[in-house]
Amino acid sequence: MKGFLSVTVVFAALVFAQGGVLVQDAPACPNPEGVHAYPHPESCNLFFLCTNGTLTVEQCENGLLFDGKGSIHNHCNYNWAAQCGERKADLTPISTPGCEYQFGLYPDTPECSVHYIKCVHGEPLPHQCEPGLVYDDKIHGCNWPDLLIEKCNPEAVVGFKCPTKVPSHTAAARFWPYPRFSVPGDCHRYITCVNGFPRLIGCGDGTLFDETTLTCEEPEVVAQCAGNHLRK
């Protein structure tokens, strides 16, 4: 970490000595090959970019900041996800219809919804959560509907009502208190009940759900799903 910061300080001295513009006569970047980004010592909106040994000062788009971890656009991360430390961040929004910032994620409605808006260069683009999930504005992403019970009905989202009891002789009982159930006509997903609410779970890539064992298996093991080995 110290080496990383010392590089930034050296870059800063070079840039400020040249008036904050492209440094034509600066020594070679730490890594003269490829593209590498480094944090600005004072501003979280700016960063240093070394492109095959050429040093430039770059600015994140509105709604984005640089922390060296995210790469939503041009090495920058969403402002709510970036860790700036003591570096200052200008969070002044540049709004367009449907977008508070030029880059960001937003709910498409204050109600429970499986859709959300992704703003790119100020253009609101509609997106949809994976089946069984809803958009959670608190985490800026999709989440289980039972974790947003104050506005979501998990049963309506998943299309399944969890039973209060499961017969002891059934396969579902083996997974109690999180019983599993197959999804009619869907070989790639299953339902598990958590605290009485349904969650739609997907099998891993290349596996299918066996309604007999209630587990995800290799395609050749799941006879009832023959021909459904491709991920939906």
TrEMBL record:
GO cellular component terms, semicolon-separated: extracellular region
Pfam family, one: CBM_14
GO terms for MF: chitin binding
InterPro entries documented for this protein: Chitin-bd_dom (IPR002557), Chitin-bd_dom_sf (IPR036508), Chitin_bind-dev_reg (IPR051940)
SUPFAM superfamilies for the chain: Invertebrate chitin-binding proteins
Record-annotated Chitin-binding type-2 domain positions: 26-86, 96-154, 159-227
Glycoprotein found in the keyword field: yes
Keywords on record: Chitin-binding, Disulfide bond, Glycoprotein, Repeat, Signal
Leader sequence residues: 1-19
Name of the protein described by the UniProt record: Chitin-binding type-2 domain-containing protein
Domain of life per record: Eukaryota
